Amino acid sequence: MHEKNRRRRATAKSHAVDAVADAGIETIESTSSVRRVYIEHTDAYQVMFYANYFRFAADAAEEALVESGVGVDARMVAVRKCKYARAARLGDDVRVQTRWLRREGAGRVTFEQTLVDAQGDTYLSAEVTYALLNARHDARVGVTTTVDDPHGDVETSETMVRLYRDEQSRGAEGSSHVDVLRYFERGRTDAIGGSDALSELKEKHGVVVVVSRLEAEFPERILPRESLDDGIPTCSVKSTVEFKRRNIQVVFHQALYAPDGIMCVGSADITCTCLDAATMRPISCPDALVAKFLGFTV
């Protein structure tokens, strides 16, 4: 009887927390927060790494939820309608504007998030969905652990990722959305032929390749750390390529698979645009780059 009463009280408390969270979400107005771009956020060209825009976005969403009184842990689970307008650079102050859009079922909310500079010019805009891991949507119980597999039996380029501790920023809780986007970047670099191939594109063909659009889906819990009795686990990134707009755009369809090689635990369609290195205007992919992708072009 005592245990039954305890569970009843816990359930009532869970529903109360959910009700407060739900009410708070409805009252969130547009908020903004500023983050500075440091070396840790940039690549070799002092340009902000594409995944770190979503680090800033998640921080801003957390701030909006805390300031609204909701105060729950939020996990990024989907990115839609994302457009990269231009790059933030080392030393820039990036303002993240967060506006509540809609609910996405129980325990999920979508924000419109726009990253702008001091003059209000846009770096990136996207609709971003977060799972609210409060008492009912706890990170340890009853959460989504997989997403739809985009590849099936299609031939792919494959990159292996060993899950050392420093590969997973959430520790025992596993990888974050930023970690997954980092893994996807490795998959794209390997598909192109490595860093030397990227350098050759610029030096020999006068072409740079930049991320311009992104659609992604993540589970609420990504690759939580398990026992290491069988050694350090290894997951895989599989990629296929689709050319669009007369080969100006290269769309990478990417998925992250758990160590069992079967369970899909993250997916993204990442559009890269080829630009003339001198003018930074769109240009068709060189035939040499198209040839690299023939084995896994869809």
List the keywords.
single chain, 298 residues, alpha+beta, Thiol Ester Dehydrase, Chain A, 2 domains, 10-stranded antiparallel beta sheet, 5 helices, globular, disordered N terminus
Description:
- A ten-stranded antiparallel beta sheet has the order 1-3-4-5-2-7-10-9-8-6.
- 25% of the residues lie in helices and 34% in strands.
- The termini are far apart.
- It has 298 residues and is of the alpha+beta class.
- The protein folds into two domains: 1-142, Thiol Ester Dehydrase, Chain A (Roll); 144-298, Hotdog Thioesterase (Thiol Ester Dehydrase, Chain A), CATH 3.10.129.
- The longest helix has 25 residues, at 2-26.
- Residues 1-17 and 135-145 have low confidence and may be disordered.
- The protein has five helices and ten strands, in the order αβαβββββααββββα.
Low-confidence stretches: 1-17, 135-145
Helix content: 10-25%
Strand content: 25-35%
CATH architectural category of the largest domain? Roll
Brief overview:
This protein is of the alpha+beta class and 298 residues long.
How would you summarize the topology of this molecule?
Blueprint: H1 2-26, E1 31-36, H2 52-67, E2 73-84, E3 93-103, E4 108-116, E5 122-133, E6 157-162, H3 177-192, H4 195-205, E7 207-217, E8 234-244, E9 249-257, E10 264-276, H5 287-292
